[in-house]
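User: Predict DAGKc domain-containing protein's structure from this.
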Amino acid sequence: MEKDASEPDPSRHRNGPVGVLYGEFTDMLNDRVRYSVSLTESALSIQKISASPGRTKVVFHLADCVGCRAHGGPDGADAGAYFTAYFYPFKRRWMSAGVARQRVEQCFRVALVQDPVANLREAEMWARAIREASALQAPRRDGVVYSEVRRPCRVMILVNPHSGRGQALQLFSGHVQGMLTEAAVPYKLVITVSPAVPRLRRRQMAAAFGGVCRATLLPSQALNSK
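Assistant:
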């Protein structure tokens, strides 16, 4: 059930140690399923709210988080907003020995009030908090300087549909597009009709965007250069 705007905002409630963010959200596919979500400096804890005893809590370490984004629903009539976190924790391989990093996606629906703008603002707050906390958990190596990539970073992707044995567009849709979405990097896709782009034009595009990449057969044709 949607909450009235006059009611207190549960997602801004803090309990326990300072720095713990707590909220209650619904499942992205079934609004009858609710979860309690808490964010600490090192982990995102998720617990299904149920009347049955023995509830199981799932904890995702932020060191395994590669990104989090906020977005509206696919239906324009949906007043709720969503935030999705992407993790790559170590998990046991299926039908084989050993462990490997496997992709896990956690998505929650924010519908605290009837105002879609307010719900999206709340989802963005959670997504930003998760990104900032996960950045602090990134592994550190001696001699390596870490700095946050400036945002917003816009990227233009040039794809020649005839390159890569005619599979360049499919490769972008199947691999690259998902990674850009997970990293919350806005991009503009341009389908090229010519095998070459004038160097001056490439410089103009690179100046307007944070980077320009081109999907071709040759790595030397990558365009993120002067």
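The radius of gyration is 21 Å.
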